[in-house]
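Proteins fold reproducibly. Consider a sample protein:
=====
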Amino acid sequence: MSLMEHGAVRPVTAVAWTSNSSTCPKDFTLISITEDGATANFTRSFAMKSGYYLCYSKDLKGGMVVSDIQLISDKDSIPHGYCFIAEHLEAKASVWKKKRVCVRMVPLGSVDTAVLDIKVTAKSKMMLQHYTYVGDVHGYVLWCRKGHFSNPMPQAKPRSVSLNLRQLSIDQPVAPLPLRPSNPLPPLPNNKLSQRRHSLHNKDTGDKCADGSIPGLTALDGVPFSLHPKFDIQTNSTALQLNSQLNNIRIKSLQDIKNEYNYTFAVEESAAKRIRPSVPAEGVPSAQ
């Protein structure tokens, strides 16, 4: 009783009819004896060999709990949100149809109170403390206890760690790998050809296009570059004369350029202001 008062109990997740312990599902609890010591066999008559018992489950794998239990007549319509309990019976067994047991199933995480326990008593004036009266059926009285339940925390499944991950450790420092250039620079050519042309010869022929051309190649690639002998100071004897010519170059300022190339567009402006001759209207003779 102390466990129920503190809520450390699992809720009822399913209720069903069963003929005996052999037909009762493995995760269900069979109610074979009433609280006042009688056999809880809901048989229709003493001539019937097979009867039926109430059983309930507290297996939370399905994610549903029983929030309420009702006992209705066969002439009444089933309440909204309720369903009849399942039947796990033998071939010759049958359930008393004048009154039916129905339950309300709700998701586990949507409520914090549910049915915690179910008990059966013989049809007498016996009262069960802390239990709610559901109804009487075929000489028996059905009781249920509602309250807060404990939702067990899901346990994480152990994962297998591979051998390579086990060898890794934070405490053990990992030796740094030697640095290697991913794209080493090609050696410089000895001649005066461009470095780009020299690198093109070293490239793999698999990079060429289908038509034989190389992508990114222009008409200037591969053309040797050299200074004209006129401007080669090291080989030309007239280096001093060239330096004197360079020193005589006058660098013009912005104002000098404006004064030299300034154009006021006065002619165009006067031509635009001229009055154009009017065109005479059709049918009117023009003045001679």
